[in-house]
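re the bet — no i am not wrong, look at it urself. input seq straight from the record:
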Amino acid sequence: MIRRVAGVTGELKRARLGVSVVFAVCGAAFATWLARVPAVQERLGLSTGELAAGLFGLAAGSVLALLGAGALLTRIGSRAAVVLGAVVCARGCRWSRSPARRRCSSPRSSCSASATACSTSR
């Protein structure tokens, strides 16, 4: 049951919509990566254990980022944190697709970003 609260402002509605959009985009990005995991594993010739180590690193990095997110939100505010996150993500995607990054230095990279860049560039 949805409960309506009297006095909900337009600003609150926009904030809720913004958070919903960010969560939807993050979910879509993760789903896209998840669908490509078998192709990345095959392309890089990773064993199940090597792939598991890389995926564990991804999860561990997320947990570490969550630990620092509270302090960051307190310091710069939620709006600035979302903008900063979007900029960092966009730069990371651009960086991983740059010509210099397309050449893998190691065929058995456990970094998911470089693995994705390597698997999609050849």
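see?? DSSP finds five helices and no strands in the chain. told u. also Confidence is low (pLDDT under 50) at residues 100-122. so pay up
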